[in-house]
Specification:
The chain is an all-alpha fold. The chain has helices at about 10-30, 40-70, 75-105, 110-145, 150, 155-185. It has six helices and no strands.
Length: about 190
């Protein structure tokens, strides 16, 4: 029996989503033993949020560029931009999970009113969108990567991709707002 990824996009999407979410929740909830993870210097951990803010900003640009390219009828450029966006997202996630697994989450130091009415809602929406994006991103990426470009147009890639790109973009923007509140404003 021959396994072809193109025939198992839904199953692969589910598998990759489960593994990704297990890693995310494992890191955030402390299920991954800190002693099992190599320790970097404090300078590295201090740099991660700033590096991730840059990664997020570049990802916003590549997502917007990818959307513009497909609207202009340039699918090859669209594909390059979206693959770049995905690599940026994966890089962001690896750095974020590393920091959280070893050091825990960052404490908000601003006023209680800002924490309650601005920071927490922004963080919650950012996190929900980021989680919702994971299966959508895997699905559209697997559809695109397992078929010749000419066949992608006959799939649900465009329909799901519009939703995924929109949610992804908003998640990255809100992530930058969270960064500004945590590391710049307060």
């Amino acid at each position: 029996m021959e396994f072809r990824a193109r025939n198992h996009v839904n199953g692969l999407t589910a598998l990759l989503t489960l593994v990704s979410l297990a890693l995310v929740f494992g890191a955030v909830l402390g299920a991954i033993p800190r002693t099992a993870i190599p320790q970097a210097s404090d300078a590295v951990f201090d740099a991660i949020p700033h590096v991730n803010a840059v990664i997020s900003t570049v990802a916003i640009v590549t997502i917007v560029a990818g959307v513009r390219y497909i609207r202009r009828g340039e699918p090859e450029k669209h594909q390059r931009m979206m693959l770049t966006s995905f690599v940026l997202f994966a890089s962001f996630l690896v750095l974020y999970l590393y920091k959280v697994a070893v050091k825990g989450t960052s404490e908000f130091l601003g006023p209680e009113a800002v924490y309650t009415f601005v920071y927490l809602p922004t963080l919650a929406i950012h996190m929900l969108l980021a989680i919702a994006c994971i299966p959508l991103l895997y699905y559209v990426m697997l559809l695109a990567l397992t078929r010749p470009l000419s066949e992608v147009f006959g799939t649900k890639h465009a329909r799901v991709g519009r939703i995924a790109a929109s949610l992804w973009l908003v998640s990255f923007v809100l992530g930058n707002v969270v960064y500004l509140l945590l590391y710049v404003v307060y």
